[in-house]
Amino acid sequence: MSNINFLKPDRSNLNIFLYLGSFLFFISILDVFLNSFFKLNLTGFLPNFLSFLLPLILGFVGLYFIRIEFSGIKNLDLLNKHINTNNFNAVLSLLIIFVIIKSLPPILSWFFIDASFAGDSKDVCTGSGACWTYIKVWIRRFMYGMYPNAEQWRINLSFVALVLLGSVGYFATDKFKKYLTLYYVVIYPVIAFLFIFFFISGGPVFFDFSYGIIAAILSVIIGFFIPSKFKFYYFLIVPLALYIILKYFLFFEEYIELGKLDGLNWVETGAWGGLSLTFIISFFCLIFCFPIGMAFALGRRSDFPLIRYISVGFIEFWRGVPLITVLFMSAVMFPMFLPEDFFIDKLVRAIIAISLFEAAYVAEVIRGGLQALPRGQYEAAKSLGMGYWKMHIFVILPQALKLVIPGIANTFLALVKDTPLIFVVGLLEIVGMLNLAKTNPKWLGFAMEGYVFAAIIFWIICYAMSKYSYNLEQKYKTDR
Amino acid sequence: MNFKLKDIIPQLITVIAVVLVFGFFTYNAQINMENRGIDFGYGFLSQESSFDVQFSLIEYDGSHSYFRAYLVGLLNTILVSVIGIVIATILGVIVGIARLSPNYLINKFAAFYVEFFRNIPLLLQIFFWYFAALRALPLPQDAEAIFGVFFLTIKGLYVPAFLWQNFNIFFYSIIAAIIAIILIKTHAKKIQEKQGKQIPVFLISIGLIFILPILSFLIGGVRLSFEVPVLKQLATTSFIYEGGVSLPPELIALTLSLSLYTATFIAECVRAGIQGVGKGQKEAAASIGLTPNQVLKLVIMPQALRIIIPPTTNQYLNLTKNSSLAAAIAYPDLVLVFAGTALMQTGKAIEIVSITMFTYLTLSISISILMNWYNKKIAIQEK
């Protein structure tokens, strides 16, 4: 204990260094803490410059003193290992601690302490904090857009029903597990489509059930007599063709004269908006872009050069242009390409554009999965006498798709983040509604609250999805 | 001949389908344009544009042609992309390295940054910076100077302008320095291969790149002065800064959000790249007696870069494409000037949208061709 070398802390004087270092470190943190939370300046008597830098110097010296290797105290060793390995790291750690302490009070006061929650007019928002009243008043617009208030239960009911139907796979017993793929790939999208097109829009029914059922039964019966070689093409084309023939040629139904669900008012798609529109668009684009992307991924790996070139051209074209120009195209250029009396709703146009755009990205992801499969899988399937389609449907695609689930999830994440761009075609989802609400003369000056609110919502959705895709990735990594 | 019908029919069907779809579109487009009295053609590019653009790098006003407007938009897009790429790279590399730091706080701070900015839509971030954050800045007359020369106001950032004399001599001196560095590098490599001696190339390069331009100041007669922006009163309540260079708030909001957003992706690329180099490589390099700096420079970085560069280039491409969101906050980029204003005035939807898409397409494809070439060049030559 005789002479202490303050430039070189060591174990022999452990206690002195520990107490001195901890004290200095504590003082520096306390100084910043009091300064930021209570506006007290402990070191106010010093010159400005010194007073400003003092916590950093004190903390640095304190951390230097307690940086003793193999001290034998577990917590101290952990601390040293994690935030205090050398001088440089010590300074960075201190700076980060200071930034956190400094930024907490303004954030807390803006979000909670000085914020106003009560009331339903602008007058209550007098404090310096956020005006959450604004969000409260406008929440229906942010969630449902211009959809009439009285009809909003339709959206809620649809979403609840779809979520329940979507969670079927979670509860399915082993006996039904093998039908799940069929359910999710074919039945569920159709149900969702019917829900959104009949229930949420309440609009004209494009699809006549009676003819649809007749067409389906007929095509199955005829299907028995078709050689198995052509069965795939057959079921791809014939049911739809039968339906069209039945409806528009055999029984001469009027093209526009269509039924309507009883008691529901029609809400045109221009009135849809808010967060629900984000979900609707993301959902449709997902179910449309997936098969298109799969087709082009297979096309890109096809043995036929012409099909390969066309697929490469398609994929590279959509991947090379920004989404905003694609939406511009769907808004101003696409109507020029259609017959004059043919009108497509702008929501449908946007969905088509985004689906084609995302399909190119999905195609590249699936191609990655196809390439990752060992050649042996192809050769084994061929040696069993499987043809192209059988091989892909039963052997290649199930394995490849399992591999690329995380990639698909990432693409879908990008899709959700891209939905605000539909402002280009004049549709207003949540960000668009914010921009609209911001210009309302009664509620000027609350842009910040709106954007923070939307950012929190998007962040929760996207973060949950990215964590989920990460978990899937980990799960399938160990599988192989 | 080994043509088989089985091979030809699917291709034929596909081609016919594609041709039919395109034919249908073209046919409809012709009829539609005839009905509306629009004629197809790119002649409008040389016509007088008669609209103004807020912010332009080249001289432009309403009397110039549409083609000039296109160039203005393209240059603005390139400007915002280049600034964004530079900032995003610097930030991304720092954050990527920070995510590998053994320091718990730094590691978590970097992870927080990445998770925070990556999961919020870019458009929302642009709106936030432009409509919420930058609107909170002071008016020109209330702005405080940063370092006495920069003024950050609600109307944009005012920075001093450089006034050069004999700029070309300065420029030549930099080129001379670069050529000298390349020569010294090749020479040093030769010496190392022949005699095993190492020349401190890095120090010499740093010296050259500073000394030659400084010499151009001392001997070559290059002079540099600054024009500091000065506050000027237009009316009783209207103030403006004169002189210097003014960067509009749209540009600031756009570069800020683009670079903050893209940096998160670049950070992940950098992290994956450095993690992708096997631990054994580092240990092997250390065990043959290389210093830590040499290990980093000669062993880790060349291998890490091979993993980092392709996805990072992809991110640069994404940034360039995302810069088209500028249209949302009225920054005059290619989409706003050309596919927005010019389209509204001329009504030539097909021509203008196709030119805009083709421009982006050219940009993307040329970069991906370059990337493929680079990938082939640096790929490990397996025997």
Helix content of chain A: 55-70%
Helix content of chain B: 55-70%
Number of helices of chain A: 19
- What is the distance, rounded to the nearest whole angstrom, between the alpha carbons of the first and last residues of chain A? 61 Å
Give the ordered list of helices and strands of chain B: HHHHEEEEHHEEEEHHHHH
The percent range for strand residues of chain A is under 5%
Low-confidence stretches of chain A: 255-259
Strand order in the largest sheet of chain B? 1-2-3-8
Low-confidence stretches of chain B: none
Query: Which whole number gives the mean pLDDT of chain B?
Result: 84
Helix and strand content put the structural class of chain A at mainly alpha
Overall pLDDT level of chain A: 82
The strand count of chain B comes to 8
The major β-sheet of chain B equals: 4 strands, antiparallel
Order of helices and strands of chain A: HHHHHHHHHHHHHHHHHEHH
Largest sheet of chain A: none
Domain module tally of chain A: 3
Overall description:
The complex is a heterodimer of chains A (480) and B (383). With 480 residues, chain A is mainly α. Chain A folds into three domains: 11-113, no CATH class; 136-147 and 267-479, MetI-like fold; 207-257, no CATH class. Helix content of chain A is 70%, strand content 0%. In chain A, helix 14 crosses helix 15 (346-372) and helix 18 (430-438) packs antiparallel against helix 19 (447-479). Chain B has 383 residues and is α+β, with helices and mostly antiparallel strands. In chain B, 65% of the residues lie in helices and 8% in strands. Chain B has eleven helices and eight strands. Chain B has helices at 5-36, 66-98, 104-118, 122-133, 167-195, 201-218, 249-276, 279-287, 292-322, 334-346, 349-378, and strands at 145-146, 150-153, 156-159, 161-165, 223-227, 230-233, 239-242, 245-247. The longest helix of chain B is centred in the first third of the chain and has 33 residues, at 66-98. Chain B is globular, with a radius of gyration of 27 Å. At the A-B interface, helix 3, helix 4, helix 13, helix 14 and helix 17 of A face helix 1, helix 3, helix 4, helix 10 and helix 11 of B.
